[in-house]
Design brief:
heterodimer; A: alpha+beta; seven-stranded mixed sheet; five-stranded mixed sheet; B: alpha+beta; Uridine Diphospho-n-acetylenolpyruvylglucosamine Reductase, domain 2; Enolase-like, domain 1; five-stranded antiparallel sheet; four-stranded antiparallel sheet
């Protein structure tokens, strides 16, 4: 190798960064055209019942109001469940906006006002009078938890003899935790701009994590030809899971565009961002038994989550308790309680962010009961294999996370005694937790095209929800093709591009990255074939012998520009498209990312005020494609984890059946002043099994375990164990 | 937001002559615009007062300061005379909102902030403050952030301002101008308790405009402290706040001011406790006894009983820090 810098592993700035900070990157609700109409959603204020009458006369009387669409006058939409099912559907009967007179939850869209401008549409919406027939509703999981039923999921079967081992353990703990509803609240609200084309087809700019998911949904729900629906999402201002399923503003905007044969935009208000999917409230019970030497003898994890009356939303809350530690006697239970609410939705590290609160707080409680250091307890019970699947891990550098994280944090200085550390008026607490997330891979396709100027364009229908997909795909393409980063353009966010899965679950690098890599490998084969035919110097050169770098193909002294090969090919450009699948060799292994999180809190004991002063997050996620992007992902996850521990909670008035703190002044997320030092480190983890890149994805792992680590630090500081999240100051007085 | 007429008068006289029951004055708009977007407030006429000559901070003949109603919260907090003579006020202002909001928000407007009660802000549920007679779901609902003093059957909301808590402690005077002339209102009388008319936050008539806030000479610069306790470190309203100001001569408290925020429909001042503190030694025991006395009449709701305990500790902390010279002992 010469001085050529390998693109993979470089802390490249975002390739789209300049467009974003200069306002040139356009988001779904920012596209416009002459005559664009604006829709405003009118929502229900009861949680259950039916609409008797919608009086829109005052609104319709306003000049500039074009239409008011409700269940009585909407255009035809599908009448079976199947067309409404999407790539992230829960079991059941998906919600259908404006389908009939039934009110299923408070905040449900009941009408769309369409007007010449947004201000008028919103004002007109305030004049729409809805008469209801109200029915009884239930929204309180805590009150009705006894009515929960088994969730329709395949959990790992119970192993060993939990009851006997739990009963006979030297220490056995039976602990209950609760976590609140949380809403995603990306900065960019959900919006759909439907541009009605001359031929009646629809170009839709949508806030989504899956353009093809939305395309297929719109096509099926409205009975349209596939080629008549094209979805764009070039830039997405955060999503965190809220864009995994097609949201109701998309249906309403399409409905209006089709019936008016006009272009229409619908943008939700911040308040309406609290009227669809969310992280469900959970009640968790952890029963843990251990021997005096710290060996875990028995674990039972039971979680009850809420769901809607129409779908069974399930996520992996309890599975982690059967895999993060070695334990031969495990019993996992997951129940659901349907309520008069909207269906929950995957939110960053869905399930794991919740289940690891229970598991990792319980481990800390066990460490205290055993008088064993919490980190030591985790090492004693280190799991070499995933016992849920009875498979070895493709790689698992969690021990290195523990060791390097502890060293960076200074964990060995910790006095185990709660309330033993002080700094002026403040009690100081040190806590830690582990984290785990599955390293998944989905099928994905990508196209690579090299033109006569040596410019490489790679494309796939994935999105970039702010994670840095544009940038890391550019790096992967540059690395795999030998074209310089500056000559590579990655295109995404268009349903007409090669197939990509939803952007979620931390599997985009693994799935789309693999497709990009394979497309570029295939491109090189084509280039080499051209070289062999057109240049004697390359005749007989094998793929292994050929060196592609800095936009050139070299073999010994022979060197040719890739642009020249593109020209020599006789084609307009050299183009390949590949369909990539997870490698078969993955099947014999469990694949996961891991983390160890160390937290220092300062607690003002008199006033209950908690400050997270310091966090060290050590991550094992395979090869890091771009340390800058990856660090940003972990920083965001840690901040959110702090919010889960201390701040975030959607508050529901159960008498009204309605979320009440539905704005960002009253729904608290951490502000800058809440965040202290966050130190992110990535440990070396070499993995040849997970995928050819050796990279596992870092979107979720940063948040997992953080809330538990904060809670454990608060206990260490104060001696008070709070099991009801978030840990607001009133719980520490 | 409803359609409205807009005027921008040049003089206070013109402004008050334009005003009526369906009009609102607008300066920074940091609260009013939010309320309009949520259809909580639906004025027919907005009178933009940002062109009025109300931006001066000047010294009064009585040794105090006269603050024009349009002085921004940021300019006021960082004004040298305020920092030097009234650090309590400066601290209180900087404890509120965010730098962006403080840059926009006016002194007069700060007094007219409306409650952050969730039910008040959601126009699709009942609220006696928003729709008199519609009911108060907060009384038996989500009332963790609500009042522990002075509430009524009709309303349990709190006043959200930090600045006003300090102004109450400093015994500021509110100068207002109406069509009938000018008058001044003692700060303690400016805001009202909800009683039977929770829709009314204060004593202003429809045509009256706040023109200035006057601070008396006594600024308690040596011994004062504003302590705000909230659910996150910034950009959150007070669960409980305390403005504590003492005049300590030798070993004795000669004068005390003690006002709580976040606990009532107005800044909550207890003059009996202030009198009791006078003549006592500034000790933890004294402050604890004062706090206990002040809080014995608290009437917590289902979810805000913690405010009683929190306020007790906050009072002790704030008075202790005030006695130490106002700097928190970290």
């Amino acid at each position: 190798m010469n001085n050529f810098t390998q693109p993979l592993g470089q802390p490249l700035d975002r390739v789209d960064g300049q467009l974003k900070v200069t306002g040139q990157a356009r988001y779904a609700g920012e596209f416009t055209e002459e005559g664009l109409l604006h829709g405003s959603v009118v929502s229900s204020n009861i949680a259950s019942g039916r609409v008797v009458r919608i009086d829109a006369s005052k609104a319709l009387a306003l000049p500039g109001v074009i239409a008011i669409i409700d269940h009585t006058n909407r255009s035809k939409i599908a009448s079976y469940d199947e067309p409404y099912e999407d790539a992230d559907s829960a079991e059941g009967s998906p919600f259908r906006p404006l389908y009939n007179d039934r009110v299923l939850y408070s905040g449900q869209p009941l009408a769309l006002v369409v007007a010449d401008n947004l201000e008028l549409a919103r004002y007109a919406g305030s004049l729409v009078v809805i008469e209801y027939e109200t029915a009884e509703h239930q929204t309180d999981l805590l009150k009705l938890q006894g009515e929960a039923r088994e969730a329709p999921v395949d959990l790992p079967k119970p192993r060993g003899h939990f009851q006997e081992e739990f009963a006979g353990a030297a220490i056995s703990l039976d602990l209950n935790y609760s976590t609140p509803i949380e809403h995603h609240n990306p900065m960019e609200p959900h919006a759909s701009t439907v541009l009605y084309q001359g031929d009646g087809s629809l170009h839709i700019h949508d806030k989504t994590q899956g353009t093809q998911n939305c395309q297929s949904y719109v096509q099926k729900v409205f009975g349209l030809e596939k080629q008549h629906v094209r979805i764009f999402a070039a830039y997405v201002g955060g999503a965190f899971g809220s864009g995994l399923r097609p949201q109701y503003q998309l249906v309403l905007a399409v409905m209006a565009a089709l019936s008016l044969k006009r272009s229409v935009r619908v943008t939700l208000t911040r308040q309406q961002m609290f009227t669809f999917g969310y992280r469900p409230r959970t009640l968790q019970r952890l029963q843990i038994g251990a021997a005096a030497n710290g060996r875990l003898l028995a674990i039972a994890h039971t979680a009850i989550g809420q769901t809607s009356r129409f779908e069974d939303f399930t996520e992996h809350v309890v599975e982690w308790s059967g895999m993060l530690y070695h334990c031969d006697n495990v019993q996992l239970t997951y129940k659901l309680l349907p309520l008069d609410v909207f269906t929950p939705l995957d939110m960053r590290a869905p399930g794991a962010a919740l289940g690891l609160i229970g598991l990792e707080c319980a481990l800390d409680e066990m460490a205290c009961a055993l008088a064993i250091d919490p980190l030591q307890l985790r090492l004693i019970n280190f799991a070499e294999r995933n016992q849920n699947e009875d498979k070895p891990y493709s790689s698992k550098a969690l021990r290195e996370c523990y060791a390097q994280g502890a060293k960076r944090f200074g964990w060995e200085q910790r006095n185990a005694e709660p309330r033993s550390m002080r700094q002026g008026r403040q009690l100081v607490g040190w806590g830690m937790a582990g984290g785990v997330w599955e390293a998944m891979q989905q099928k994905a396709s990508a196209k690579a095209r090299l033109d006569h100027h040596g410019k490489l364009t790679v494309s796939s229908a994935t999105t970039d929800i702010g994670t840095g997909t544009y940038t890391v795909m550019t790096q992967i393409a540059a690395q795999a093709s030998g074209v310089s980063v500056k000559d590579v353009t990655f295109i995404l966010g268009d349903s007409s591009l090669p197939t990509a899965p939803l952007q979620g679950g931390s599997f985009t690098v693994s799935s789309v990255g693999t497709a990009v890599q394979q497309a570029c490998e295939a491109l090189k084969e084509k280039l080499l074939a051209v070289a062999r035919q057109t240049s004697a110097a390359f005749a007989g050169v094998t793929a292994e012998q050929a060196v592609f770098e800095e936009g050139h193909l070299t073999f010994g002294e022979a060197r040719v520009a890739l642009a020249a090969l593109a020209r020599d090919s006789g084609e307009e450009a050299i183009e390949v498209q590949v369909d990539a699948e997870p490698d078969k060799k993955r099947e014999a292994y469990a694949t996961a990312t891991h983390s160890a999180v160390f937290v220092e809190v300062l607690v003002d004991e008199d006033l209950g005020i908690v400050k997270v002063n310091r966090v060290v997050s050590a991550i094992a996620a395979g090869r890091v494609v771009n340390p800058k992007m990856a660090r940003s992902q972990i920083l965001g996850g840690v901040v959110w984890g702090i919010g889960m521990a201390l701040h975030e909670e959607t508050q529901t008035d159960h008498a009204l059946g309605r979320h009440m703190n539905h704005n960002l002044a009253e729904y608290h997320i951490p502000v800058n002043a809440d965040i202290g030092d966050i130190d992110v480190l990535f440990v070396e983890e070499h993995d040849e099994i997970v995928n050819a890149l050796g990279s596992k994805g870092v979107g979720e792992i940063g948040i997992v375990g953080v809330a538990a680590a904060v809670a454990n630090a608060i206990y260490h500081a104060t001696g008070t164990r709070v099991r009801d999240f978030p840990i607001t100051l009133d719980k520490l007085l | 937001m409803n359609p409205f007429h807009y005027s921008k008068p040049d003089s206070v006289q013109d402004a008050v002559h334009l005003a009526g029951p369906a009009s609102r004055f607008i300066a920074g708009g940091t609260n009013l615009l939010d309320l309009m977007k949520e259809n909580v407030t639906r004025p027919e006429h907005l009178i933009d007062i940002t062109g009025l000559p109300l931006r001066e901070v000047s010294e009064t003949a009585r040794g105090g300061l006269m603050i024009g109603a349009l002085v921004s919260n940021a300019d006021l907090a960082w004004h040298p005379l305020i920092e030097q003579r009234y650090p309590l006020l400066s601290q209180a202002i900087l404890a509120g909102a965010s730098p962006q909001l403080r840059n926009m928000a006016s002194t007069g407007g700060n007094l007219l902030q409306r409650t952050r009660c969730y039910y008040f802000y959601d126009a699709s549920v009942p609220c006696n403050k928003r729709e008199p007679g519609s009911g108060c779901p907060a009384r038996d609902g989500l009332n963790r952030i609500h009042a522990i003093f002075g509430a009524s059957a009709q309303c349990v909301a709190t006043h959200p301002s930090d600045m006003c808590v300090a102004l109450a402690a400093l015994e500021a005077v509110v100068h207002v101008q109406g069509r009938g002339g000018a008058r001044s209102i003692e700060f303690a009388d400016f805001h009202r308790l909800p009683g039977e008319a929770p829709e009314r936050d204060n004593q202003l008539a429809d045509d009256e405009l706040i023109t200035a806030i006057e601070l008396p000479a006594a600024g308690f610069a040596d011994c004062s402290h504003y302590l705000k306790i909230r659910d996150r470190a910034s950009y959150a309203f007070a669960l409980v706040s305390v403005a504590a100001a003492l005049k300590v001569v030798g070993p004795i408290i000669r004068e005390a001011r003690l006002v709580l925020g976040g606990v009532a429909h107005k800044p909550w001042r207890d003059k009996a406790v202030e009198s009791w503190l006078t003549g006592k030694a500034p000790s933890r025991e004294t402050f604890t006894a004062a706090a206990d006395t002040l809080l014995q009449n608290a009437e917590p709701l289902e979810h805000n009983a913690f405010k009683v305990k929190l306020a007790r500790r906050a009072i002790v902390r704030a008075l202790s820090d005030a006695a130490q010279g106002g700097q928190p002992d970290e």
